[in-house]
Amino acid sequence: MLDKEQMVKLVESCGVSLYDTEIANEYDKKIFRIYITSKEGISLDKCAEISRILSPIFDLEPPLEGEYLFEVSSPGIERKLTKPEHFTASIGEKVKVKLTNKEKFIGLLESFVDNVASVRVENELKQISLAEIESIRTYFEW
Fold it and tell me: Tens digit of pLDDT for each residue in 59-68?
C-alpha cells in the first residue's frame, strides 16, 4: 500500500500540499477523501490532476478494503484543524471552537505552542489544550 510519506511526495510533486485524508461514509458508500492546499488556492483542474495520478496506484493498492469512492478536494475556506501543523498554519485567522464541555465560541487564533491553542475572544485570551477541544475550524464571516 502507498504510505502517507509517498502520498505526500506525489501530491507535492504537483505543486500542492497534502492537508489531510479522511474516510467518510455517505449514503451507504465509503469514501476515501484527500484534501489538498496551496497558497494560490485549489482549482478543480488541480484536484483532477491529483486524482489522475493517484487513482491508478489505488487501483493496484487500495487505501481501503472493499468498494469505495475516491475524492480529491480542497479543505475549504472553513477547514477543520486536526493536527498541530493545521493550527500553526492558521495563526492569525478566526476560528470557531467547540469544547468537550460543550462551550462554543468564535475568536482569533493567536498562537499554538505545546499543543495549547491561544484564542482571543473579545478581550479575553483563552488557553485551550487539544484535549479540551471537541472540534475547531477556521471561520469566515460572510
Answer: 998 888 889 9
CATH code linked to domain 4-73: 3.30.300.70
Q: Give the C-alpha separation, 13 to 22, whole Å.
A: 21
Domain boundaries, the chain: 4-73, 84-138
Higher pLDDT, 57 or 141: 57
The pLDDT tens digits of the residues spanning 93-122 come to: 999 999 999 999 999 999 999 999 999 999
> In 15-51, which positions are buried (b, 16+ CB within 10 angstroms) versus exposed (e)?
ebbbbbeeeeeeeeeeebbbbbbeeeebeeebbebbe
Instruction: Look up the CATH architecture of domain 84-138.
Output: Roll (2.30)
